[in-house]
Amino acid sequence: MKVRQNGAAVQMADKKMTALIPVKIKWHGGRKKVIPAATLPDQQPAHDASMLVALSRAWHWQRPIDSGSDIARREGLHQTTVNALLRLTQLSPALVRDILNGRQPKTLSIRWLKTNELLWDWDDQQEFFGRFDG
Question: Cα separation of 117 and 87, whole Å?
């Protein structure tokens, strides 16, 4: 078996196909060691440490928010109440702005928002809630 390191994945020569696997052969303790291409130093992924820390914090902080139990305990509320209110963070910025300005649909109530699933797409929300008073 010949191992060639030329970068080509497949070579065709004289009606014969040769598949090349990108590896590196190193001597280690008097023996040959095959190092797969994924672990070659020049092909190592470049991890952004600050991005990894931010992602881990976000997922860590998301857990208590998703369950609502820690918030409920601190606020003295039932967990289902907290979970229902947390869904309000899914409202589109335009609808939040309308609520803050007192221009929300007249038939929209906190009871409706707490007991019904919200659409995830903000444009769909605008269309849906726009039909409330229509």
Answer: 8
* CA distance linking residue 30 with residue 27, whole number of Å: 6
Is the Cα dihedral 97, 102, 108, 112 positive or negative? Answer: positive
Q: What are the backbone angles phi and psi of residue 110, rounded to the nearest 5°?
A: -65, -35
Residue type, 70: D
Tens digit of each residue's pLDDT (9 = 90 or more) over 46-101: 666 777 777 777 777 777 777 778 888 888 999 888 888 888 988 999 999 999 98
- Each domain of the chain, given as residue ranges in start order, spans 1-38, 49-130
The pTM of this model reads 0.52
